[in-house]
Amino acid sequence: MLDWSTACPDWEERIVARRSLVPLAPLYPSEAEYALSLFKSLRVPDLPGKPTFAECADDWVFDFVAAIFGANDPETGAQKISEFLLLISKKNTKSTIAAAIMLTALVVGYREEDELLILAPTLEVARNAFDPAAAMVRADDELSDLMHIQEATRTIKHRVTRSSLKVVAADSDTVSGKKAGRILIDELWVFGKKKNADAMLREATGGMVSRPEGFVIYLTTQSDEPPAGVFKDKLDYARDVRDGKVKDNRFMPVLYEYPRAMIEAQAYLLPKNFYVTNPNLGRSVSMEWLEREMGKEMAKGPETRNVFLAKHLNVEIGMNLRANRWPGAEFWASRVEAGLTLDAVLDRSEAVVIGIDGGGLDDLFGLCVIGRERETKRWLAWSHAWVHKGVFDRRQKIADRLRDFERAGDLTVVDDKLQDLTQIVEVVQVTFDRGLLAAVSVDPAGLGELVDALGAIGVTQDAGLLIGAPQGYAMMNAIKTAERRLVNGTLLHDGSGLMSWCVGNLKIEPTATAIRASKQSAGDAKIDPVMALFDAVTVMSRNPEANSGAANLASYYEHLRNSA
Q1: Are residues 226 and 88 located together in one domain of the fold?
Q2: Mean pLDDT, the chain, as a whole number?
Q3: Which of 272, 425, 456, 498 is buried most deeply by CB count within 10 Å?
Q4: Number of domains in the chain
Q5: Looking at the whole model, is its pTM more than 0.85?
Q6: Rounded CA separation 39/26 (Å)
């Protein structure tokens, strides 16, 4: 019995040393050798002289191809490793490799009347995959006799087995009813932005159920904004398999990305390290071009620079930083304390301020708990948000992203507005019961129900525990205080993906004498949890004491009794 693992726990050493990221030799060497010999014989038509892959490709390509076809059991026809993900920087011949792999699969496939599929997110990407495949056929006399090219339908048909390779654009062609067993999904990052992309991919890959020889290959570069949807799900899973956190020997990830230490040191900015995510450097990728473009991007703002880094160096964008961004956003990612839960904040704090913002049916209901640490006096921030389920219909553009935050535990979806109020009040109650609550600081607009709910547990303005936080330009001090503490490391947070997204959505609007915070774009760019942070900072910056309203609370209750 074969025993193998697709984990690659030493990938950081391998990628820096330019070693293969494919963690194992082909399970069936004869199958790999046969398919690889055909793959190598294919010509690359857009290069001068139309060289074969054997003449112009690097070993990393051959290792990947051998892993795919070498996982097919020749006796049973079953594909032992049936799912592959290749993450690689732009211009590393990804689309050309995709065309050649699927053309090879069409030739070596044994099933008659079979359907092979390349699924692209747009017509342009579909054309980028189909054109090289068709050109490879035309460049080889033997293949030209064996294959029939149908330009109108982006199909290449095998004249003998009558099997076909079809390239489908998800934005125009339907994938329902497809019976393909061997599928390649190109530019997965774009699918991460599409509504119902998960259902679409499930439909496209449904034919694998009855085809034991089936496989699905995902090819992608990094996204031009923080990963979301099916792309984020698949990338997170691939990293867990690669790192050995999840055991799945039927899934093989090959991820060209920088080791964490190089990311933290920003070593990807050095030209000597460009090779790490560009294995085709010196072939299809020009070192001179990358250096020149990097120089241009460093003179620009972070918005375009981050897209360049994502596409050409596979540096994942943590936040969509723009020219009019909040300055604190640059330091947000570096102030994460892993494992900073609500309980941890309460356990370590001497006083706590809770900020609350939002709550409309089209908004997030944001909550931020800031605790002042006993010994260090640092501020520890934990955030959460609630959203009404109707937002998924009204804001379909961000629906998949919100679902990501829900799965991560940063966002709670409710179908009754009282549910979010109840849970928010529970957080306040727990904090108060532990003798830690200094105040609840809220945006006064539209929070009548919340004020009533907090009043029921004695958290009121008269008791000194409920404070209306100044908004608009009056919030400038809180905004500046938060960014200064991020810079000097005295504000730490739990690192939730939801807050990172909201921080990236924040826009700072300056005037001659002040600044105000607003959304980068109306509607879809939610910032309520960040505004809750600023609400809490407004009070915490006054250095309040825990339950400072307790004495007032007693006199308030006495007042109520006398009034009765």
Answers
A1: yes
A2: 88
A3: 498
A4: 3
A5: no
A6: 15
